[in-house]
Queue: 2 jobs
Job 1
Amino acid sequence: MKRAELVNQIHKKKSFLCIGLDSDITKIPTHILSEADPVFEFNKQIIDATADLAVAYKPNTAFYESRGVEGWISLKKTIDYLNQLAQPVFTIADAKRGDIGNTSTQYAKAFFEALNFDAITLAPYMGQDSISPFLQFKDKWAIVLALTSNQGAFDFQFIQNQENQDKLFESVLKKTKSWGSTENMMFVVGATKAELLGQVRKHIPDHFLLVPGVGAQGGSLQEVAKYGMNKEVGLLVNSSRGIIFASRGTDFAEKAREEALKIQQEMAVLI
Amino acid sequence: MKRAELVNQIHKKKSFLCIGLDSDITKIPTHILSEADPVFEFNKQIIDATADLAVAYKPNTAFYESRGVEGWISLKKTIDYLNQLAQPVFTIADAKRGDIGNTSTQYAKAFFEALNFDAITLAPYMGQDSISPFLQFKDKWAIVLALTSNQGAFDFQFIQNQENQDKLFESVLKKTKSWGSTENMMFVVGATKAELLGQVRKHIPDHFLLVPGVGAQGGSLQEVAKYGMNKEVGLLVNSSRGIIFASRGTDFAEKAREEALKIQQEMAVLI
């Protein structure tokens, strides 16, 4: 998907919500477990109940790989289902990959071709040749981890460079942005530290940010919008468990819609 | 596999060779492509030809994921085959994963349970909660990227911390080692900068190192042993393309054995 189409969908739906399909088979409603592919069936019902409220969906590959070959089949069915929706959605493989050049090309083929995702999340530790191969695919996106929302973010991402006092996440932003453009690169910036979004915006005013950590992890949507929004919105705010596991009964899809609707309504006034 | 057993195998085989099963379907011999599962058949023949010379095998998951569900099936067959060899080998999923805590647990299940690997490679960017879940599995290993052998290693891994002048890869070594032990943690340190192995050994004298970059990527085995070996050898030196693609004809397994034998013979005098 092109950036213009993403921005168009955001305005159409008055939403910059991304729904994380972290569809842990041990947490999905038990009445679905009798289905041939319970994880896909769960995803399908969540998607059907929320597709008019969300502009993006983001399966985290860990929850599929943990089920081996079967999980990979569920993931394939899920992306195929997302890609045939009447209203297009932006699709993100939350895979956090990153390897040397020729190997990264294989990952790009995995997620952009074998599975037809619009975007993949990437870890920056191995530098340019681990990221650049993903930028060679037309209308596909690399979403690079800059500042994550977990406790471990404080272990390395705030190390200060003695040359220029930049924190590591800032070095990642400054260097990485030159490898691509605002049309094929985004950055992950956690919402648990919303005021840092302002610092991030100094380095990358125009890029889209993928923001986890709103809701369950404690970040506020208003704060995120205040510090992170740009003239084309420039935000995809993710919620996973808060939506998909809002209920674990037979009403799970309905409750997921209610949660998504609450967030979408908050977003509508911010856009 | 326990560390003692790994060390035992190294002495038995007089080898610390790890063979990288980067089995790119576009590079395997064409006569194999008519097999039902050509990548598995290729791996099987490589393994049969080299299992007495190598102590470890390391499929890089990218080359399997790029083929979608089929690739995941080839990977499953390959690890199952490795796990039934008469002489045990150490198995590494070169997956370079890393995610927030509950998600990392899913990756651990994927590679330690759904697939029964001994070890997985991990990216350190997200810190402790992205690594620790892998250390909760008995006799399983986390192999953390410290200093990689690619060009992009220079982008971030050498950034100097203004607090203590440590380079980023040193901060990773110093902090990460405290999360596990020499019995469940190793580090990736590239051989293209062999003299840096000495610097690495100051921080982690006793850990095993997984060393890529010998051969095709230019590192010398003698240099690696000189700077990197410890009293229990402490090295797994990987070679991928130089062995598995030594020939692309019908003699590929025989030629792979010849290349592996050359390296094993060099290793035998160094142990």
Job 2
Amino acid sequence: MPRVLALETHDVRFPTSLTLACSDAMNPAPDYAAAYAVLRTDGPDELAGHGFAFTIGRFNDVQVAAIAALAPAIVGADVDELVADLGGFSRRLVGDSQLRWLGPETGIAHMAVGAIVNACWDLKARRAGLPLWRLLCDLTPAELVALVDFRYLEDAITPAEALDLLERGAEGKAARILELTAGGYPAYSTAPGWLGYTDDHLAGLLRQVIGEGFGQVKLKVGGSVQDDVRRLALAREICGPDYLIAIDANQVWGTGEAIRWIRQLAEFNPAWMEEPTFPDDILAMAQIRRAVAPVPIAAGEHVANRVVFKQLLQAGALDVMQIDATRVAGVNENVANLLLAAKAGIRVCPHAGGVGLCEAVQHLSFFDYACVSGTMDDRVIEWIDHLHEHFVSPAVVRDGRYIAPTAAGNSMEMRADSIREYSYPDGPAWAGNAVRTLGNQP
Amino acid sequence: MPRVLALETHDVRFPTSLTLACSDAMNPAPDYAAAYAVLRTDGPDELAGHGFAFTIGRFNDVQVAAIAALAPAIVGADVDELVADLGGFSRRLVGDSQLRWLGPETGIAHMAVGAIVNACWDLKARRAGLPLWRLLCDLTPAELVALVDFRYLEDAITPAEALDLLERGAEGKAARILELTAGGYPAYSTAPGWLGYTDDHLAGLLRQVIGEGFGQVKLKVGGSVQDDVRRLALAREICGPDYLIAIDANQVWGTGEAIRWIRQLAEFNPAWMEEPTFPDDILAMAQIRRAVAPVPIAAGEHVANRVVFKQLLQAGALDVMQIDATRVAGVNENVANLLLAAKAGIRVCPHAGGVGLCEAVQHLSFFDYACVSGTMDDRVIEWIDHLHEHFVSPAVVRDGRYIAPTAAGNSMEMRADSIREYSYPDGPAWAGNAVRTLGNQP
């Protein structure tokens, strides 16, 4: 009867702000970071569970403290009981009344719950000897429904409707699993489009990713209209008129400014317009979408919970749901998000990149195709070829497609030597670099 | 040229869960707590600034860590420069791109900014020798506009509209300040209505607060309809048909359940229905308000920022804005909230109670009457006679009205002996009590 012996945490940061990779209109100089958690058990060595919250530098230590503060909820738990009811476990954590005061269900406290819940799923998948997506595929529709917290969702989807969706989604599942295993899932590349890049660098990278087989790219916008127009014209020239080019403003605009700005970029026929404004501003997003139609609106990397996604769908504010593996309360809440999208009939194109987000979120899209939506039409997972070397089972993209993960677990395990090297502020990688504080920004 | 020498923090918790005071349908056993911050300067002794975030127990340590992590943004600052531009200072903190990732503008990170911004206002008011509300009254309309972060607000209120509102609000200001000084501001009492109280206890407390001169009380609801109906019938019998009785469900319902439940309580003519559902569910709140009209809908203690308040007003979801002194990014964001309410023509009835929330928020209502709304009609500040003895300048309510604060500062300074006594987990007050963790709840 194995037990959870310890919750180990690490503050791991990569000095990505030293280059201008990852620069956008809102985030000029992020240091990609993981508030990293390991559940140690007294089973055999491999029975550990790994999870993390992704941040962009400062306050990663606070995120780590929040994860560590959840130790009393998990240390000492009977592993068999724990993994047998991850729906109940995650509802108890999310619903803890004192913890909830710090949200509810948003920000640092909620992301801490997500890291722990994801680590539990890693543990469960390793015990089953399956990659997370295959483990999820083996659950029955009723077992999947039991994972979801329907509190505040029932005006959009009921447990009975979810069960019905999943029963229909299970038809043909075996064939789709084979198809995923053989052919993977489409990816798109954000690599060429960072705001800090010169036009020449942008052009070179665009040619490169097209050559690598990607069917879509994404460019950051929102610094200046003139720059955006010039860069998009260049991209259209290189990619051709029908190639998919999404654009992303990372929340820098107010409503009126967004509408004026997007109208000036609409001639370049964007595949979608991502994060035009504040992520919780549901009414603004809906107004922007109506005003710039038919430009599709995408958002999600900063959507804190299923209730905000629910409203974005109810308000007609969203064409593309961009789930994120570590923003919400882990796998369970993302199953809720996938069900909301399926019910509304909108596509899910996950946010990834960062540190380990490709690794983590791919499992959810593979599961979605096999068991929920049953379609890959117009669906792509974000891909940035960056920092994968720090993971034990890195995500792999070939010919513009994610290859189905096969290693047991959720792919979030970071290499022990990377954790040592990039531990903040004492790891060797930080020895030659100025420590990043609010008063000391590059 | 005084400088900020240090940011001192304390984890202060009161074992309120040992009684059933403070129990409601969502929060059965809170331990009221303050993540407390002091800005020490090298001016004379009294030149310190005090602020805190209010939490209800667990994770107060994480909230303290978040406040402490902001030290590099404030320690070393020139105090004259700092207090001369608190608008710029708060916009820089709120807008820090790496910090913003953990929100944006919500949860632990945002409340940490609020504690620091409030401490800066305390420092500024002490230097001026004025209570915070009087200091705010001395600012010109243009200076007040400069405090506000209009990002994401301009579809509801522009700087020019705010200036116009404040210029009109300033007319007759001197007379209203005299009126406040002489007669104070109306309070309402939540003391009788906690869910854990017996009917006899409820009845006794209702008679007591009516005798003390309060014109309104609030009862917690949402445990069971039968109990709510019985308690409200009892309250109506004691208070009479015209006495103001507000009710508060603390977010426990989904949309449909809220509508069904409120309709069963509507016969008791509630003064308002507070927090019927999830605080970020703007569309649900609007739907509930339409369905249960004319019952007024109130919310705000869990509204994370001005953008959510903006939407609640735009969606027609709110009759009563319940600002909270420590939920948002401090005084500056609450000035924005007061302006939004004034523009929309709805009343502001602040959330208080907790630890020191009465002390902190009273200044904002006094300022609102003097300089913004110019009215006290149907407006009341929450009052719970609890834990005030721990503050150096406690809020005072007499004959059902808050007495105008006269001590210099924002009234958030806690007594040094209280901080020592209730420091968690090592203060003497916790020596005889079980330490509260997720695994060890009373």
